[in-house]
Each structure stands twice: as structure tokens, then as C-alpha cells.
TrEMBL record:
Residue stretches making up the Peptidase S26 domain: 6-169
Primary residence: membrane
Similarity field: Belongs to the peptidase S26 family.
Coiled coil: none
One BP annotation, GO: signal peptide processing
Protein name: Signal peptidase I
Entry's EC annotation: 3.4.21.89
An annotated Gene Ontology molecular function: serine-type endopeptidase activity
Keywords attached to this entry: Hydrolase, Protease
Subcellular location: Cell membrane; Membrane
One Pfam family hit: Peptidase_S26
InterPro entries: LexA/Signal_pep-like_sf, Pept_S26A_signal_pept_1, Pept_S26A_signal_pept_1_CS, Pept_S26A_signal_pept_1_Ser-AS, Peptidase_S26
Species in which this protein is naturally found: Halobacillus karajensis
Gene: spsB_2
Active-site positions on this chain: 35, 76
Amino acid sequence: MKKYRRVTRTILIALLLAFVFRSYLFASYIVDGESMEPTLNDGNLLMVNKAVYDWKEIGRQQVIVFHANEEEDYVKRVIGIAGDEIAVKSDQLYINGEQVEESYLDPLRPSDGLPFTNDFTLEEVTGHETVPEGHLFVMGDNRRDSLDSRYFGFVPAEAVVGKVDVRYWPVNQLGVQF
């Protein structure tokens, strides 16, 4: 009888821990679409760290999941944070006047002679000179085929679900650095 109580207690504790981890610390998401290729592909399963931004600030270049509206969550890369001036000139990203290396785009850059990212300034696409306090400017890695801040504007920081930490499916694409 004691053996069954121990097993039952162990199972209940495991279920409670799984519930806490799932509800408060991590969430699982499925990539829907091609806007983050080649970093993330349609159908990839992701583990999103929901608690990381309770301890640290959201940073540039991080891949995040956020509530785009009441029905959809999007996965995009943070390009700009509060106070940043953003521009793309001759297919190069500039933040606060300094060129930013985006090596994660290299596998997708076509050699068709056309720009991968069309020229723009933050003011042209949002009407603001800088990213407002409490907001982010996000873009998909597949710059030619991404619905992102160039089209829908800034993302409120409170809409962020969390940081993409792990791609766990398919197993042959297991990854932890994005």
C-alpha cells in the first residue's frame, strides 16, 4: 500500500511540475508560413521561453513569438528596440546609423540581382523617426515574403509571448541558436 502511495505522489508531483512549466515557463508553437526561412521553416515545432523577459530585456536579433491579434501569434526577429533609428540602404541594415551584420540571411539571399530587403527608413514605413518606448520593430528573415513591422507597425512589448529557445521538430533540424 505504501508503494502505491509513493508512486501516486510521484505522478501527481510530476503532473503538477509539468503544468507549471507548460503554463508559466515554456510554450510550444508551430511555425506557420515562410516568413522566417531559412532560420525556421513552415511546420517546425518550437519551444518558447515565456519567463526569460521577466529577468532581462528583449534584445535585438532575438527571435520571438508575439500576439499579432486575438487569433494569431507570429514569430519574427527583433530588429529594433525603443529609441532605435532603423534604415535599410543598398540591402544593408543600419541601426542608429551603424551597419549591422545579418549573416543569418546569407543562405536565403538570392543571386537574381534584386535587393533582398528593399530600401526603407523607419519614418517611411511607420511615420516615426525612432522605435517608441515599450515597442519593438520586427522583421521576418525571409525579407521578400514577410508580413512584419514594415507593414503592420510596431509590436507592443507586452504582446511578446517569449523568446524562441529550441526548435525540436523535425529532429534533423534540432536547433538552439537563432
